[in-house]
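Hi W.,

Here's what went into the run:
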Amino acid sequence: MVIRPAVVALLCSSAANVAAVGGIAPSAIAIIRHWNLASGSERQLVLERRTYLISMLVALVLVTDVLALLLFVFNADQIAPLFVGAMCAVGTLNVNAYGFPSLIAHIAVFFAGSTWLAVNHVDVQAPDYPLVRTKYALLLGLAPVLIAACVLEWQYFLGMHVDVITSCCSRLFQSGGRGLGGDLAALPPRVAMALFYGSLAAAAVAGVAVASTRRGAYVLAAASAAAFAGALVGIVSFLSLYVYEQPHHHCPFCLLKADYGYVGYALYVPLFVATAAGLAAGAIGSFAHVPSLRAIVPRTSARLAWVAAAGFTAVAIVALVITAMSHLVLMSPGGAP
Amino acid sequence: MIELAGVHKAFNHGRHNELWALRDITLTLPPRQVTVFHGPSGSGKTTLLALVGCLGRPTMGRVRLDGSDISGLPERFVTAIRRRTFGVIFQQFHLVRGLSALDNVMLPAYPLAGDWPTLARRAAALLGELELGARASTHVEWLSGGEQQRVAIARALINDPAIILADEPTANLDSALARDFLGILARLAREGRSILMTSHDPLVVQSALVQRVVTLRDGRIVGDA
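Here's what came out:
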């Protein structure tokens, strides 16, 4: 195991969060089973007093988990020099079999957690706890993901040995290579650019439309998911080439390095925030019919839609700046690659 | 309209020193009525007043204001109802020492108060109506007991509440000041405000102003006249 402050912080926070959710679970089950706002029974009044505290605690847990994704990626990049063959976070994540699954689990917790936070936010805006059962059912559904993320993270960090020779990003993200990374790297730049800017533009327009009309949150959610995928494809396929100014270096993780001005954070942070906002807008949109949320949901969806639109636009602008400042000529003036 | 349905209140619930202050209180209090909760010390009248005024929550049962449950609301909504609906006059007044009478009256309007000059004019007008205009800038600890109570009344009125709650309002007043206080309450009642008081003072209970006396003993209603 590699002992670093970030590693200890990540392990402690994931264990503490799972313990907190485990502690909350009995109350969540009690709320799902016994909640009855029409009753003035002692149990109901206890649940009413408890639910506010519980939702605050869950919100704290999930905010911690959302921030942990950033620390996880930053740490993976920072400790790469400890491993033979590792040039960036990819090498660190390849140290054992739990690295990439742990990253994927973190990303899943990020999006699921941010969606739960949005549902909780609209619920506490209404005086009659309209989503109390729903949000605790969602929490119980989220609990296995949190536990899986915690287990994977502990396995990953505990199984991390510095004498392991790991493989670097050029092996994973090379055109003609095997797996998803190789496929993305082999995608023609013209197609990848169309996918990248097209999906970002569609999601940004959907965000502005939802913010303006307060309708179509589901479309925004779908467009956000598509933009997330399209942006990742574009980053691997062509944008990374412009950053590194090398025609064969497709790594999406080297972008996080100081050598490239941490430009990856300028891409990933708005991308993740915008996607989470777009997904959350769609998730809360399904509660617009609840009487006490008729005014709250459209207002919150509109705010989330603005965040999504701004985030996707920011990603596109950063990409355009990268392309404009790069010395790499990826396509000839005629447009042929 | 305030309705209490099967309200119980326990302090230190589930502990060895558990105390049931209220038991199965079911009561309807129509608007624009002057009601006194009467009973000996420890009968639960102050606890009942606190539950009505959203200053506490029942252990069981519901409190409804104009048909809407207020006992189970999240705190942020309770705060808004408390500020908008209720004005409270405490037995010990609970004025903030070191502040002037005017500042004490203005205090409950914050943080949602409008501009300061408008609020200050309204607070000064309330003090003027209670014949304390000349004492507005005086620190409250330099005022007499009767004057302090009138500052407390003005403070209870600053948010223009529909319901005035007064806990043992004449306990610290002599008979003359108590009559003055009842005169002020009569004026507030004429303005259309509901008034709920706790008292075991015969001067209050037997006053012509009082329309209803709810008698409590050991946390239960034993009389309603």
